[in-house]
Fold this protein.
Amino acid sequence: MAKRSAPEVNAGSMADIAFLLLIFFLVTTDIATDSGLSRKLPPWEENQPEDIVQIKEKNIFALTLNSNNQILLTSAGDSEVIAIKDLRARAFEFLDNGGGQGEDACKRCKGNRDPKSSDNLKKAVISLANDRLTDYKTYITVQNEIIAAYNDIRNREFKKDYPKLEMNFVEATEMYQDPVTDVKVKESLKEKLEAIKEVVPQLFSEAEAKRD
Amino acid sequence: MSKFKKKKDGGLPPISTASLPDIVFMLLFFFMVATVIKEDNLKIQNQLPKANQIEKLDKKKPISYIYIGKPSANYIDTYGTEDRIQLNDKLQSVEQVQAFIAAERAALAEELVPTLTVSLKVDRDAKMGVLTDVKQELRKTNALKINYTTKKGDAVSN
């Protein structure tokens, strides 16, 4: 008898089935946004203590955001409205100033050593106050620029202290957080990252928003 | 004469669609890998702002999400046009934040409680007022690790 070839299965509807599945997944899922600016809030204190540690005025880089999203910078005895694009450079300049003398001298700073600006990296504080009507996007931009200024300095110090690694602070942090990285590498990275964080602490304070 | 068969008229041969399922499956797999199932059904507008100094959230640690924004078009009649807070699937008031965090903590294993991170997904056009209140509530309930969840991009162009 002649050999009969097996009948071909009609695969025409396969595409329809796959499309149906595809559309189901398109509707029920979201592209994950799981990254952002990490911050730590200060713990709540019932009675805010009156005798807050005194900080010299020259060590404070005070930013105030008003309801029109303008940035007022009060630093080194001056107040001025600054543009958002200048903020990063100004913050960097302030942090890196190193105007301290004697005990407060800053060996790592490469700034102008202006005696009216910050003493050293461990004393420079950035403070931020915002209005209740400030836009969130402006607030995020300001936060981002402040973190950027700190990261710039940390990158520089990390490269200077550990030139053999051939990466900067941000890349090292990413590598440390990457689950693929070997445990031993992580350990040594953690030590170095902590050391840099110790040298360049993020002293950032946020005042409560003004009530109108 | 049947010796000379009539030539077929010049109709185009049908295009083979046999590879269409393969293409669609490929798309399907891409979406399955690149996306996650929606955690909450949003009732508010939630366009995240952009930033570039971002850190990835550690998915192994517990994350709670708080959404803030104006109610979306369908809900304006019910909830008005002021910024609102969404916890899980409902629009809630500021006072509910503490209870929400407590509930999130209760669902965790004890050793994971201190590592709980609160991801704040705030609409880019929202005002700071509500967010400030939420932050105060988080401080009161001692949930201090927060993350302003943003998209990656140039922050100055926000």
